[in-house]
Design a protein that fits this description.
globular, binds flavin mononucleotide, alpha+beta, 7 helices, 4-stranded antiparallel sheet, NADH Oxidase
């Protein structure tokens, strides 16, 4: 699959089949995550693979804005780089790098026929469930599995037109509707 196709065809998946994602497929997905860029190549991420249904149920309570039935999930743990790179830590770069790793996971998974989602989580509770120490962050928990149905392709209307996003030389401002304050 071409990168462009994976980018355009990937969909958020909420309805999953219950058959497991084989270890070799999971390995390939994590293998792709590690090629994401990171500040000074610090690779400030770890991935927790969760297949235990009791743990998945507990985690679901703390991802209240997503309902799904994934047979597994990947929690993305972010490691601090404060000691060596305090400025990069301060501006949030370990998390930015983690988000890039998530994108690699999502695209590679899609290429392999595996669906994913980004769950917004209550971090403190998730950390407690997964035994993640205080000083580490947990970026997201990614529900994962084979999609129940083939998700419909995006249409052009699902995204803003390119012309609306491009600014030249300086910021030109945006229409009122683009800024979500409330
Ligand atoms: C940072 C981030 C947080 C998200 N949080 C949630 C969430 O809590 N619940 C949910 O259902 N989807 C969540 N999503 C998924 C978006 O709703 C979804 O990506 C978007 O609607 C576009 O659909 P698509 O992924 O199929 O292109 C999140 C996505 C991102 C990048």
């Amino acid at each position: 699959m071409e990168v462009t196709d994976a980018i355009k065809q990937r969909r958020l998946v909420r309805e999953f089949r219950q058959d497991p994602v084989p270890d070799d497929v999971l390995y390939q997905i994590i293998e792709s995550a590690r090629w994401a860029p990171s500040p000074f190549n610090t690779q400030p991420w770890e991935f927790i693979i969760i297949r235990n249904s009791e743990t998945l149920k507990k985690l679901a309570k703390f991802a209240p804005t997503i309902e799904c039935n994934a047979p597994m999930a990947i929690a993305v743990v972010i490691l601090p780089i404060t000691a060596k790179y305090p400025f990069h830590q301060q501006v949030g770069e370990p998390e930015h790098a983690g988000a890039m790793a998530v994108q690699n996971i999502m695209l590679r998974a899609w290429e392999l026929g595996v669906g994913t989602a980004w769950a917004t989580i209550e971090k403190d509770n998730v950390k407690q469930i997964l035994n993640i120490p205080e000083e580490f962050d947990v970026l997201t928990v990614i529900p994962m599995g084979y999609p129940m149905d083939e998700p419909p392709l995006h249409t052009e209307d699902d995204r803003l037109p390119v012309e609306d996003l491009m600014n030249f030389e300086e910021f030109r401002g945006v229409s009122e509707g683009r800024i979500i304050i409330y």
